[in-house]
Amino acid sequence: MKKIFFAAIALVALASCAKEEFVSVNRQAISFGEAFVDNATRADYSVAGNLKKFYVYGTASGTMQGGGTVNIFDGDKVTGTVGSNIVDGKETHVWNCTETQYWIPGANYAFAAVVDATVEAPASNNGMPTTLTTIADDATTGNMYLKDMLYAEATVDGATVTVGYNTPVNFTFQHLLSKVHFTVTSTAQGDYSHEVTGIKVYNYAEGTYTINGGTWNGNGSPVAVTFADIAGVSSTNGTTGVSNADMLLVPTAATYNVTFTVELYKGTTKLGTE
């Protein structure tokens, strides 16, 4: 009886010790909040709800051994589902990243986000983007160079990162391309109409954007870029008919040359071409 009593005391002591050494750490995963797109250039992502994904890069520094910097995001894909609350172009998304990383108390964070660009991110820059190259849209529709190109940065000061920190990272994207916009009108009446085809912009080259300094360099020799054809434009009862075509190009001070063909129709019969 005495032996059983001492064994029971020993078990209680062991259970108590195990309970006291259990530690709970409240560490939150890094999340992403608003992704606001500057709509000054009226490019395709300026329409609320059009931005569905971006790729995120990020580093943490200051608290690791030796005070170094480590890469935490390396072009990881972030996808979002648009919510119902869209105000002043700001979209409510539920964003999901393919990679999960956690806030470290006291660490300083730097983030970059990219849309529709080929990224160069050398190891010497801890995997953060240094240059971005344009991506041409070769869709079967024939619409060339309709890919937008967006870039954003965000930082979080280590002084604000404490245990339980869970503030989402917000991005304000900037358009890196310029929108070229053609408007074709027709004052033809009755069953007359016009079609505009073969719109080309000459002296254009794809480019590479250097992030620090914000400079563009052309890639290759200038070429002629073809827009999508503009469908028939007609007017009814004297009201001017309007049709549009857009393209996103690298900003440049170079002089562009533009050519196009205009066809005049009466009904379905083509009367002439200029």
Question: SSE layout and pairings?
Answer:
Blueprint: H1 2-20, E1 32-37, E2 53-61, E3 69-87, E4 90-97, E5 108-115, E6 118-120, E7 131-133, E8 150-156, E9 169-175, E10 178-186, E11 192-210, E12 215-226, E13 230-234, E14 241-249, E15 257-266, E16 269-273
Parallel strand pairs: 1-9
Antiparallel strand pairs: 2-3, 2-5, 3-4, 5-8, 6-7, 7-11, 8-9, 10-14, 11-12, 11-13, 11-15, 15-16
Biggest pleated-sheet summary: 7 strands, mixed
H and E string: HEEEEEEEEEEEEEEEE
SS content category: mainly beta
Proportion of strand residues: over 45%
Low confidence ranges: 1-19, 39-43, 139-143
Mean pLDDT: 75
List the strand order in the largest sheet.
Answer: 1-9-8-5-2-3-4
The radius of gyration over CA amounts to 29 Å
Helix content: under 10%
The N- to C-terminal Cα distance equals: 113 Å
The total count of strands amounts to 16
Describe the oligomeric state of these chains in a short phrase. Answer: single chain
Question: What is the number of helices?
Answer: 1
Label the overall shape. Answer: elongated
Write up this protein.
With 274 residues, the chain is mostly beta strands. 7% of the residues lie in helices and 51% in strands. The chain is built from one helix and 16 strands. It has one helix at residues 2-20, and strands at 32-37, 53-61, 69-87, 90-97, 108-115, 118-120, 131-133, 150-156, 169-175, 178-186, 192-210, 215-226, 230-234, 241-249, 257-266, 269-273. A seven-stranded mixed sheet has the order 1-9-8-5-2-3-4, with no helix packed on it. Strands 6, 7, 11, 12, 13, 15 and 16 form a seven-stranded antiparallel sheet that branches. A hairpin with a 7-residue loop joins strand 2 and strand 3 (69-87). The chain starts with a helix and ends with a strand. 23% of the residues are buried. Mean pLDDT is 75; it is low at 1-19, 39-43 and 139-143.
